[in-house]
Every structure is written in structure tokens, then in C-alpha cells.
Amino acid sequence: MLKLDIGRIKRERIIIISGRRAVEISLLSIATSFVLFSLVLMYEGADPLVAYQNMFSFAFDPKLGLSLTIHRSVLILFTTLAFIIPLRAGLWNVGMEGQFYLGTIGAFFMAYTFASLPSEILIPLILLGAAAAGSLYGAIAGTLRGKFNVNEVVVTLMMNNIAFWLIYLLVVGGPWAGIAESSSRPLPKSAHAPYIFNTPFTSFLAIALAVVLFVFLTKTTTGFKIRVLGHSINTAKYVGIDEFKMSVLVMSLGGAIAGLAGYHMWAGDPAFLMIPRPEAYKAVGDLTYWGIILGLVTLLNPVPAIPASFFMGSIIVGATVLVRRLRLPFGFDFLFLGMISITFAAFQFFYNYRLKVMKK
Amino acid sequence: MIEISPTLWPFTTRFLEVSTILVLAAVGELLTQRSGVINVGIEGLMLFGAATSFLTAQAFGPLWGFATGTLVGAFLGLFHAMLSVSLRVNQIISGMGVWLFATGFVTYWADRYTGPLKATIPRISGLTPAFFIALAVVIIIWFVLTRTHFGLKIRSVGENPAAAEVSGVNVTWTRYFCTTVGGALGGFSGAVLMLSYLGAWSHLPTKGLGWLAFGLVMFSLWRPGILLVGALAFGFVWQFAISPESIFPGFPAPLPVNRMLPFLLTIIILTIISTERFRRRWALMKPEALGQPYIKE
Description:
The structure holds two protein chains of two kinds. Chain A is mainly alpha-helical.
């Protein structure tokens, strides 16, 4: 056994963790991953300080990366919210990737079908389509869980892969294939996301959604029921909360939120405005898994998820500079993201325990 | 109209290869889960196994490739055990962390060497030798789990760690052992994928096989026998999805539809098996303490 209580250091169990401690832990884990990554940078012959300075100056420069940072942050925020809501009811939604793809399909379906409508009517329709497709996809997992007690982790993971091929089917040589090889037709002009203060309006939608969900979870009866179910299934049964209804509700809610990201991602970035080739949309799909990590880091609270996503977005965008500007090997940015994720995982320890130095 | 093609035997060897990969990864996960630890990072284990074995095989030959692939898997399993057993981190987070780390690290590490292997491994009339190893591993794990004292210990740790501890089983050690062995098998399966099935490195080569193996464990009801049958069926479906024309020339369905089949099938089978009737009749249940860290008070 790996004994941590050898000597004078003892681990102490924490039952309820304060928000302040959560912030401290996440800052500490971020700092640790930066230190670890410095070693890799030095191994590759790059100066860590120059690299980090380059990263953040790019990510926060209004002329260069800031709009990209905001855009990616909002994607992460959507997926974080999509993860938080079901887990509040005790359901692990690891299907944000699939729901995001379905949202993409819903949004593009609406955009192609009603391309002639003016954008005041078209964009609400698209948002509705994206949310509906995502929520239906989430509801499948919720129904299976509520009705037959099928493990939702496995179901959502499988559905992620199904959704990947679903888009592939539509885009690569399918009905939505564009002129460019293996990417879709461009979005009609009226479907492009309108900008407010130089940012796609979906960014404000996401932030508003985070606040609304916070109120929903803490102040409404349904939110209370969700939290009761998350704490104890037996208590929920005893007070007459319908587990099946709740499972479907939270999963479809999560799915709808992840689905909205499907519109935001492709319509809010002038570099896309279409579904790109499979490797490119798969790479974006992989980003959605950050929702899991950030959801847990923020202790399932939608409001702190806003700054957390923004910070993560800045790293995601900034890290691309390492490859492009500093000529470090391909995949270096992904390596950094991987290292952050594993440090976050390891630092989960401090959410449950506190190390204490004992006096003898 | 539908005729059996002369490529049937090559197809069979290919699909048995996929089954081999699946069964190796899944039976390792089965052992891990039987001891009460869940490792969702199989895809990551396989990626690491594949990358390590690929790079080693390029330098020192395929045999070393298998060895290092397995070793790296074992190390990752050990790491997961450290996080989830000793540090009591949430096991899904820890597994996801390993997977995300693997996607990043492997891309950085192996993508610049993208290309085919220099040397291939010998085959037994077209069949990969790893197939027989996989069969042996399934039988060994089945035997250990159901017929030996040690297997009883593993199962008791997975069902009720507190009771196991009282009767003198070292819960921590057992979980470490099972997770490490499971990790090694995952790494080995990645090596088989790379050195035997694909034979060339490309960007993130596992393409969801690891997730499929994870689903397989769930619906095998934690029985190695059912797992083997499931893996054979899934290997068939997977390979059929890639080249349906090798059995039925002129098979009409477009490719991506077929690629969804294995995942769709998992959901359907899982749903059927999860119904109350099935569970009661077979009296097979998941390990009671699965995914819960054991806290000695």
C-alpha cells in the first residue's frame, strides 16, 4: 500500500469542500502543469518563459487571437454546462461530443432547408434545430438509463462514435458535400452568427445560460429535485421524485446545451462557416471532453465555469502558437492539453483530502 | 445474387485479428473491473501501446515492440491504480485524464514518424499469432477468477472490499495488481493493433476500438466466456464495416453506415441485458463496489 501517513504527514478526509479551496486547488494544478510542461519545453530546446509569453500574448491580443480565444472558450463553456446539469442528478454525461455533432447536424439541416428566410427568422430556427437534435440525442441515453438502468457512460460513449459517422455520412460524398474535398457546403449568408461587440451573439447566450442554469439549479423546485436525486436515489424515491422523468429531463437539457455549441462552433468563426473535413471536426469534438474536467474543477457550479472556460480557451488557442510560431513539433499543443488534463485528474485528490503535518 | 467471395479466408483472418485486439483490451478491463476499479482510459492505453510498440519496432524489431507496448500499458495501469486506489481520485476522471494525455502525447511523439513498419511479424497461415495468445489469456483469466483462491479474493474485493479486508485480503494490493495487469493487456492489445493489424502509424490509429472494448466488458456481464463470444462478433462487425465487399461482392450500403453498427449493437445488447428479467435469470450482476474507492475507517 502506498502509505501517505508515513512519518508526520497525515491525510485528512474532507466532506464538504469550500469554493475558496476549489479555486486554490485549480490554480495550484494549473501552476504544476505549467512547471511540468516547462521541462518538456526545455527538452525541446525552447525557453519556457518565451514560449508562455508568446502563448498568452497571442491568445489575449485583440488583433490576433482574442476573438478566437473567446470563440473556443464559449464552446468549452457550452460543453461544461452540458456536463454539469446531468451530473447534478448523478448522471455522467460523457456524450457531449455526440450531442455537439447532432447539434451541428440540426443547425445545418435548418440552415440548408430554410436558406431563403431572412436571418431574423432563420437564426432562431437554427438554434431550435441545434438544441432539439442535441436534446433528442441526450434523451436517448436518459431514457435508457431511467427505464432500463443501462449504464449511461457506455451508452453516451458509443453514441459519440455513432454521431461521428453520422456527420461523415452527410458530409463526405453525402448530400451535404461541398465543392472542396470532404467538407460540407458553406452555410448560407443569412445563417452566419450576428456579431455584438465583435463577438458572435452565441457567446452572450452561453454566459446568460450559465447564469440562468445557476438560478434554475438553486432556486427552482425542479432544480432542487435534480439535486436531491444527485445526492441520494433512495431519498429521491422516498419523497416521490420520478427518477425516469428526471433522467430524461437532465440528459435532454444537457444534450440541448451541447447541441447549441454545434451552431456556435461553425457559424461563429469566419474560418469555418461550414463543416470541415472529418479530422478537423473530430479535433473540435475532442475539445468537448474538457467540459468533464472543468465541470468537476468548478464543483458543478455553472457560474465559475465562465472564467474557467475562458482560461482553458486561452490555453487551447495560445498553445497553437507553440507549433506555428516557435516551430516546435506537430502535436506539441495537444501534449500541453494532455498534461493539464492529467494534472487536474491527479489534483482531484485534494478535493477529498487535506494533508496535515502532525506534531509528535 | 449474393455469392460467397474467394476472399473469405483473408477476411476471416482479418476479423479474427480485430477480435484479438478487442478481447485482449476487454479482458484486461474485465479483470480490473472485477477488482472494483473502472478504467475508462482503454483507448489511451491502446494508443500508448500502439505508439510505443511502433517506435520500438522501428528501432529494434517487432518482438521488442510487443514487450515495450505491454510494459507501457502496465505502467499506465499502475498510474491509474495510484490515482484511483491510493489517492482516491474519481476513477472516471482519472481514466479520462489518461486518455486525453495519451491523445496529446502520442500525437506529439509518433506523428512525425508517420509511415509503414519496416518489418512485419510472422503469421500462421495468415492468422496472427496473437490470436492464440488472446485465447490463452481469456482461459487463464477465466480459470483464475472462477477456479482459484486468488480469483475469489479478487472478486470479493470487487463486491465488498470491507468484508474482504476483514477476512484478511489486502484490498489495496489486489486492486493494484488487477489494474496493472489490465493496463498491460491494454498496452499489448495496442501493440497487436499496430504491429499486426495496421502495420503503419497514422494520426490516432485506434478509431474508437478502445471505447468498444469498454462497452464489451459491460455487456459481457463480467464473464470472460461471454466476452470472448462478444469480441468475435464485434470483430466480425468491425471488419465487415470496413470491407463488406470481401464477403458479399457488390454490397450496397455506404461505408459510414456500417461503421456505426458495432456501436449501435453495443447499445442494443446492453439495453436488452440490463432489463430486470435478464439480470435475475442469469443472476449475474456487476461488481458491487465498481468505481468506488475503498476507504478504511
